[in-house]
């Protein structure tokens, strides 16, 4: 075997032939200017169901996207077979910039964040008033994730026939969160869905809540069966009448008045990915006062400028309390 010294020239270098005869790799990616626009409805084992115009298309992610994943709610560009016929497969070649992102981690020690849904306008936090008991810490964590991701929260309280909503309403009244209170009889009669839909028109709303609170039952009431059938491949994912939601699923409201996204029941909502400094953006009346805070202020320390800002009458003291409670949520475990 020949060993090269430090005085080699180009003639001494052996070039391996390209036996496959294919073109060399390049970093220049095609623009796909003729790609069709679509919206991701659900993701299942590497296959993405997308809505393109009035058709549902089964697609896979192009290799050129690398590790960039597409999630439910993403606006994407697709090429290939866009007919939507059985056994056809399109290709997602571009994921457009997201307007909002709902993210969570498995727990507070998990460094890997998971994007639950993209481009949603609103987060409906569904909680039962009894059976199972409400979990305020989980609600607080969902609120922090909503504010951080650019979503407006909506609190939906179910099973009011088993327990009154007064305690939760007192706890969250200072946050000025819109809410809906429903009972099991109202849900069965369709009245609950009608009142919830008043908050959904023209929006993409993600629904979250732990198992047993009636989240998927409410989504089923909001989305008529014929709208489910119109989404083609999606119909098999939901499992009518039983809780089988294993991945997020976007469904259209009647009369094209918006979208609901049913998400899997959550046992925990980790906030390891949240930068506490961004939570204050949900409190615009407090933001100007934070300019005079010490560097890296936690907003819950003796020299925090927000105390003076509130004392001068620029904001309600209850709002500062609410901000500090939400910031403290990130440091607490959900069972605390």
TrEMBL record:
<dbReference type="GO" id="GO:0005525">
    <property type="term" value="F:GTP binding"/>
</dbReference>
<dbReference type="GO" id="GO:0003924">
    <property type="term" value="F:GTPase activity"/>
</dbReference>
<dbReference type="GO" id="GO:0046872">
    <property type="term" value="F:metal ion binding"/>
</dbReference>
<protein>
    <recommendedName>
        <fullName>Small ribosomal subunit biogenesis GTPase RsgA</fullName>
        <ecNumber>3.6.1.-</ecNumber>
    </recommendedName>
</protein>
<dbReference type="InterPro" id="IPR027417">
    <property type="entry name" value="P-loop_NTPase"/>
</dbReference>
<comment type="similarity">
    <text>Belongs to the TRAFAC class YlqF/YawG GTPase family. RsgA subfamily.</text>
</comment>
<feature type="binding site">
    <location>
        <begin position="209"/>
        <end position="217"/>
    </location>
    <ligand>
        <name>GTP</name>
    </ligand>
</feature>
<feature type="binding site">
    <location>
        <position position="293"/>
    </location>
    <ligand>
        <name>Zn(2+)</name>
    </ligand>
</feature>
<feature type="binding site">
    <location>
        <position position="299"/>
    </location>
    <ligand>
        <name>Zn(2+)</name>
    </ligand>
</feature>
<comment type="function">
    <text>One of several proteins that assist in the late maturation steps of the functional core of the 30S ribosomal subunit. Helps release RbfA from mature subunits. May play a role in the assembly of ribosomal proteins into the subunit. Circularly permuted GTPase that catalyzes slow GTP hydrolysis, GTPase activity is stimulated by the 30S ribosomal subunit.</text>
</comment>
<keyword id="KW-0479">Metal-binding</keyword>
<keyword id="KW-0699">rRNA-binding</keyword>
<dbReference type="GO" id="GO:0005737">
    <property type="term" value="C:cytoplasm"/>
</dbReference>
<dbReference type="InterPro" id="IPR030378">
    <property type="entry name" value="G_CP_dom"/>
</dbReference>
<keyword id="KW-0963">Cytoplasm</keyword>
<keyword id="KW-0547">Nucleotide-binding</keyword>
<dbReference type="Pfam" id="PF03193">
    <property type="entry name" value="RsgA_GTPase"/>
</dbReference>
<keyword id="KW-0342">GTP-binding</keyword>
<keyword id="KW-0694">RNA-binding</keyword>
<feature type="domain" description="CP-type G">
    <location>
        <begin position="109"/>
        <end position="269"/>
    </location>
</feature>
<dbReference type="GO" id="GO:0042274">
    <property type="term" value="P:ribosomal small subunit biogenesis"/>
</dbReference>
<feature type="binding site">
    <location>
        <position position="297"/>
    </location>
    <ligand>
        <name>Zn(2+)</name>
    </ligand>
</feature>
<keyword id="KW-0690">Ribosome biogenesis</keyword>
<keyword id="KW-0862">Zinc</keyword>
<feature type="compositionally biased region" description="Basic residues">
    <location>
        <begin position="16"/>
        <end position="29"/>
    </location>
</feature>
<dbReference type="GO" id="GO:0019843">
    <property type="term" value="F:rRNA binding"/>
</dbReference>
<feature type="compositionally biased region" description="Basic and acidic residues">
    <location>
        <begin position="1"/>
        <end position="15"/>
    </location>
</feature>
<feature type="binding site">
    <location>
        <begin position="158"/>
        <end position="161"/>
    </location>
    <ligand>
        <name>GTP</name>
    </ligand>
</feature>
<keyword id="KW-0378">Hydrolase</keyword>
<comment type="subunit">
    <text>Monomer. Associates with 30S ribosomal subunit, binds 16S rRNA.</text>
</comment>
<dbReference type="InterPro" id="IPR010914">
    <property type="entry name" value="RsgA_GTPase_dom"/>
</dbReference>
<feature type="binding site">
    <location>
        <position position="304"/>
    </location>
    <ligand>
        <name>Zn(2+)</name>
    </ligand>
</feature>
<dbReference type="InterPro" id="IPR004881">
    <property type="entry name" value="Ribosome_biogen_GTPase_RsgA"/>
</dbReference>
<feature type="region of interest" description="Disordered">
    <location>
        <begin position="1"/>
        <end position="34"/>
    </location>
</feature>
<feature type="domain" description="EngC GTPase">
    <location>
        <begin position="118"/>
        <end position="267"/>
    </location>
</feature>
